[in-house]
Amino acid sequence: MAYSKRCIVTGAAGFIGSALARLLLKETEARVLVVDKLTYAGVPESLREVGLDPATLASSNPRLSFMKADICDQEAMDRAFAEFRPDTIFHLAAESHVDRSIDGPGEFIRTNVVGTATLLQAALKYWKPLEDAARAAFRFQHISTDEVYGTLGETGFFTEKTPYSPHSPYSASKASSDHLVRAWHDTYGMPTLITNCSNNYGPYHFPEKLIPLIILNCLDGKPLPVYGKGANVRDWLYVDDHARALLLVNEKGVPGETYNVGGHNERTNLEVVKTVCAILDELRPLSRTSHSSRLSRYSDLITYVTDRPGHDLRYAIDPAKLMDELGWRPRENFETGIRRTVQWYLDNEWWWKPIREKTYSGQRLGTAR
Question: Which of 36, 99, 147, 312 does the annotation list as catalytic?
Fold first, then answer.
């Protein structure tokens, strides 16, 4: 692909950020500076296949470099822009787990709101003195969530015109950051882009999130927690399809515009859990595990638990603008993507086992107690 921009990717040791960084380094000629604080969810091993040494953070790939830094550190962000001199920034660094935002909202406000404002200031300082052509070509691309729109009833879809109505500390912090990015465009004329995506899934997904949690709990013979009756609906998007959408928006999107990215793959949480169980019944039958004596199938592990506070009923995105104006199409549907995801976790214990042993073992979060 004839894409050779110099790209800062914040949060690229995380789930979506690492998928984007891998895409940029494998399928384009881009140069990438990863800026990541390496919180609990920052896993540098997710960039190992594109040349990063997780132990030293040094890169054997001449187009990849790593800067361990907090996006709230104004001096560090100013330095990143001044030294790397990017053509574009993909801003994905964020606290992202709704349950954790219920337990500790302050860190979400700090990272998602203050951190975004800090990056915007660093970008503005860098962008204003650029020559005219470079100023026009520069992009500040902010990656956000459909959760800013609130909840839907049984019908309808979120569009780019849907009013914001966030219901959790996480979604409120992301809504705030969206508004800041728009303000920097409208006030200063800085070329910004915003994307709001539906629920992502796929390889390298930190195991606090539903799909990897269910996969790994199955393999460990642990209960599969389903909130309430499992009736909450999400629109699932394979992470590599999302990464391709982000690159397309960066290349062809109109500054100041928002683009929604969704997979048209609505499933209830219970349907997702049962689908994962069925695939594992096929790929890793219980007869080959130590749990077979007490289970007949993985779905026997399903356990209904008290619902999450403020749990939105349904999310569903209409990606028509992205598809009609920019030509994006997802390569995976839920059936193909979820099978690829389950198989990846079966094949890559090296990545997830240290996380389960040292960082997060699957305990319940976000009870607001």
Answer: 147
- pLDDT, tens digit, for every residue of 90-115? 999 999 777 788 888 999 999 999 99
pLDDT at 313: 82
What's the pLDDT tens digit per position in 30-83? Answer: 999 999 999 988 999 999 999 999 999 999 999 999 999 999 999 999 999 999
d(CA 195, CA 246): 8
Q: Is 164 a known active-site residue? A: no
- Tell me, yes or no, whether 217 lies in a domain: no
Alpha-carbon span 261 to 87, nearest angstrom:
23
DSSP 272-286: HHHHHHHHHHHHS-G
Residue in 87, 95, 99, 146 annotated catalytic: 146
Active site residue 36: no
Identity of the amino acid at 159: T
Other CB atoms within 10 Å distance of the CB of residue 26: 10
Residue 280 lies in a domain: no
Q: Please report the pLDDT score of residue 329 as a whole number.
A: 96
Quote the pLDDT of residue 212: 96
Q: What is the pLDDT of residue 100?
A: 82
Structural domain that includes position 135: 6-202+237-265+313-333
Residue whose structure tokens are 């891998």 = 22
Q: Of residues 170, 238, 315, 345, which has the active-site annotation?
A: 170
Known catalytic membership, residue 147 = yes
Residue 210: inside a domain: no
CATH assignment of the domain containing 32: 3.40.50.720
How many angstroms separate the CA atoms of 47 and 174, rounded? 25
